[in-house]
Amino acid sequence: MARYKVILAYDGTHFQGFQRQAGARTVQAEVEKALRSLGWGEESLLSSGRTDTGVHASGQVIAFDLDWRHSLEALRNALNARLPEDVAAKQVEEVPGDFHPRFNAIERAYLYRIIVAETRDPLRERYAWRLWPPLEAPEALQSAAQALCGTHDFSAFGTPPVEGGSTLRHIYQAEWRENGDEWLFEVRGNAFLYHMVRRMVWAQVQVGLNRLSLADFLEAVQQARPLPPGLAPAHGLVLTGVRYAENRQEAKNWMRSLL
């Protein structure tokens, strides 16, 4: 019996999120179904966190214990042979028995994609938010993104995973990149609140459309002042990766960075 870490990719379009729910098609349920056919008998796999309905992933991390006597490549191939077409195991490795993909993570990364186009673009809109009219103040996006970096009370942008939990989070990187008719928002942080990234994107877009002042956005970040309700669509968001400390010193340094 050993513990295995798997990096998953999935198209979230036809899933009601990652986390298992009674009577719903979820990523976790599909992966657990595949694992059971390989002899796995635990109650639940471990994951780095849940994703909302419609959100995609190229770097979700799960872990499970399994009595597997073949190669890691064989395990990856066996999983992919049993998973539906919209889920794939990209990488498999054996890890220590106390590894937990959520509690051992020191960084999570997301990408949000926006298309600025007047007419529909069916080939791209599955994975992007089509925005029209165009941004009136695109330069304000970078100012808003830079303000997100650091440790803040992000209660204006989301709710904690457990009732009464901390809303303090540390953002390492937040930036926009323009690529033709697309705007890409990349953000890395130690952890994220429920709906936090989609709320960040929506609020920044309102700043870029001159529907929300940069001053009001800054107050939401720096003073946790409530914002008007709004969420960027789920289908533009991708969980791109989860990072773990390579050694104890890096883990200690990460802990100090949060103080």
The helix tally amounts to 6
Here the CATH topology of the largest domain equals Alpha-Beta Plaits
What number is the mean pLDDT?
Answer: 95
Ends apart, CA distance between termini? 38 Å
* Class computed from helices, strands and strand pairing: alpha+beta
Any idea what the shape is? globular
Major β-sheet annotation:
10 strands, mixed
- The level of helicity is 10-25%
Strand content range:
25-35%
What CATH first level of the largest domain would be assigned? Alpha Beta
Count of spatially separate domains: 2
In the CATH classification, which architecture of the largest domain applies? 2-Layer Sandwich
Radius of gyration: 19 Å
Order of helices and strands: EHEEHEEEHEEEHHEH
Going by CATH, the homologous superfamily of the largest domain would be Pseudouridine synthase I, catalytic domain, C-terminal subdomain
Give me the count of strands: 10
Low-confidence stretches: none
Question: Could you characterize what this model shows?
Answer:
By secondary structure, the protein is an alpha+beta fold. The chain folds into 2 domains: 2-95, Pseudouridine synthase I, catalytic domain, N-terminal subdomain (Alpha-Beta Plaits); 105-257, Alpha-Beta Plaits (2-Layer Sandwich). It is 25% helix and 30% strand. It is built from 6 helices and 10 strands. A hairpin with a 2-residue loop joins strand 8 (168-179) and strand 9. Helix 3 packs antiparallel against helix 4 (196-208) and helix 3 packs parallel to helix 5. The longest helix has 13 residues, at 196-208. The chain starts with a strand and ends with a helix.
